[in-house]
């Protein structure tokens, strides 16, 4: 008797307790993940002192092993046109996700037989094949922004006998002509959950998406749509994904946004430890990103041989809209010298966000939730939706 096509992946997931729903276990067993891996994948490496993604054939010994293990693999860089040196890529733009994360997202939908699901981000089609196995081809609609990626997924799925509806278009708009749906599953990250997703899900339906305010990597967010049209829910676990294309940030440097010699630059000081922006607490990262929108931080440590500056650092903030600030950290403590330009006082905003987080008892990410309103506004709350965090 031949082994199930997805037996190796299923074993890798069930042995770690990642698949607990028998219906999804059967789906994973039925789908051959290797069929969705293109001839070339992209592996993170260093070239000329720069982090890039290098092309590797799927026949490479490591890649061949990873295909059947709990690994994500990059399947496209730079929207299909590698922009790095020597044919390497700079920005990963499509992937086949880590199977354990795929399973977590599917199980978070809490689907019933014959539910209708909108998938945002077809990618390779592997996730879509699992949805087809669980719900049926006629119950799943998928939308993919990249025509080439969408066409390859169509071909692969057809070769395996799956015939779901795949639409090429902007996933942020959903597919209103095919709704309403019982659930939306996004395989791309969102900083702002598109209102269209709420509009196209019935009350009581779920929206499962990687979400983050942009300052930190995304977390898996599970929202339930209410009768009032708003959706509310909590973050479940880490979920690093590419962002929706119109929400991803540019590849740039702080030098593109900070000019300490520009007219109007203001000198000052802050009592806030500038290193606060590097606090790794996931709850703090979410609060900071939400309360100080658009924030980007860069920390430059003093050189190892700078004996007169041991432990010092320059911390730079900017928002890509013209506002920036720097602060000079020294172990001697406050006050810290600052420079700033633009309309926003970024250090004041960071200090206000820190105060709000501390007043709330320094909550971890597990105590934070999100409300998305029909007009697109997003509230971050503590424990219950009525406890909205503000600065």
TrEMBL record:
Keywords: Cytoplasm, Methyltransferase, S-adenosyl-L-methionine, Transferase
CDD domains: AdoMet_MTases
Single Gene Ontology MF annotation: methyltransferase activity
Pfam family, one: PCMT
Subcellular location: Cytoplasm
Domain of life according to the entry: Bacteria
EC number: 2.1.1.77
InterPro entries xrefs: PCMT, SAM-dependent_MTases_sf
Record's keyword annotation contains Lipid metabolism: no
GO BP term, pick one: methylation
Family, similarity comment: Belongs to the methyltransferase superfamily. L-isoaspartyl/D-aspartyl protein methyltransferase family.
Protein name: Protein-L-isoaspartate O-methyltransferase
Organism: Nocardiopsis endophytica
């Amino acid at each position: 008797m031949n082994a199930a096509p997805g037996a190796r992946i299923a074993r890798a997931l069930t042995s770690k307790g990642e698949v607990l729903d028998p219906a999804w276990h059967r789906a994973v067993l039925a789908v051959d993940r290797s069929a969705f891996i293109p001839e070339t994948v992209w592996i993170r490496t260093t070239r000329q002192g720069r982090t890039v993604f290098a092309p590797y054939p799927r026949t490479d010994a490591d890649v061949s092993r990873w295909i059947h293990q709990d690994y994500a693999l990059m399947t496209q860089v730079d929207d299909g046109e590698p922009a790095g040196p020597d044919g390497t890529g700079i920005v990963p733009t499509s992937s086949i996700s880590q199977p354990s994360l795929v399973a977590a997202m599917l199980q978070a939908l809490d689907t019933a037989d014959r539910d209708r699901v909108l998938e945002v981000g077809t990618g390779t089609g592997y996730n879509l094949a699992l949805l087809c196995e669980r719900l049926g081809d006629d119950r799943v609609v998928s939308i993919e922004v990249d025509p080439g990626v969408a066409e390859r997924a169509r071909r692969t799925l057809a070769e395996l006998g799956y015939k779901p509806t795949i639409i090429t278009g902007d996933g942020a708009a959903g597919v209103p002509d095919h709704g309403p749906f019982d659930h939306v599953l996004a395989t791309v990250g969102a900083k702002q959950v598109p209102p269209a997703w709420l509009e196209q899900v019935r009350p009581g339906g779920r929206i499962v998406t990687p979400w983050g305010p942009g300052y930190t990597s995304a977390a898996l967010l599970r929202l339930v749509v209410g009768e009032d049209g708003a959706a509310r829910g909590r973050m479940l676990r880490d979920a690093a994904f590419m962002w929706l294309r119109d929400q991803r940030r540019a590849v740039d440097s702080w030098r593109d946004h900070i000019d300490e010699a520009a007219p109007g630059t203001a000198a000052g000081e802050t009592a806030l430890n500038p290193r606060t922006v590097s606090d790794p607490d996931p709850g703090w990262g979410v609060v900071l990103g939400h309360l100080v929108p658009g924030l980007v931080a860069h920390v430059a440590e003093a050189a190892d041989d700078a004996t007169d500056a041991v432990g010092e650092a320059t911390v730079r903030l900017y928002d890509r809209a013209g506002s920036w600030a720097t602060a000079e950290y020294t172990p001697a403590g406050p006050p810290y010298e600052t420079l700033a330009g633009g309309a926003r006082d970024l250090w004041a905003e960071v200090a206000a966000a820190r105060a709000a987080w501390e007043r709330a008892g320094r909550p971890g990410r597990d105590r934070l939730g999100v409300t998305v309103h029909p007009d697109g506004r997003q509230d971050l709350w503590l424990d219950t939706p009525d406890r909205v965090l503000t600065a």
